[in-house]
Amino acid sequence: QVQLVESGGGLVQDGGSLRLSCTGSGFTFSTYVMSWYRQAPGKERELISSITTSGTYTTYADVVKCRFTISRDHAKNTVYLQMNNLKTEDTAVYFCTGGFGVRVYWGPGTQVTISS
Description:
By secondary structure, the protein is mostly beta strands. 0% of the residues lie in helices and 55% in strands. The strands form two sheets. Strands 2, 4, 5, 6, 9, 10 and 11 form a seven-stranded mixed β-sheet that branches. It has a four-stranded antiparallel β-sheet with strand order 1-3-8-7, with no helix packed on it. Strand 4 and strand 5 form a beta hairpin.
């Protein structure tokens, strides 16, 4: 079956760092655009970062630009999100997605909580 599993979430202090991982299975990872979304309580889900199939180009939401870095490892079928200088407003459930044409797969999400 197609599956995306996020890991690396948890509790970290304001100004700290975390690295999220998302490993895919059941589909050809190398042909999918991978993205990270997040959803804070009471707020809409937002796209925070994407990476092309080749890994050559990346995009970031303005609120995380220069703090977060997305990368992918085709050999491990994994996409990463390195998060530095975390702020309380980064607290949310983080989801990874894989997109191919009109097909999009979603992971179940992982909680990230920033404590001031």
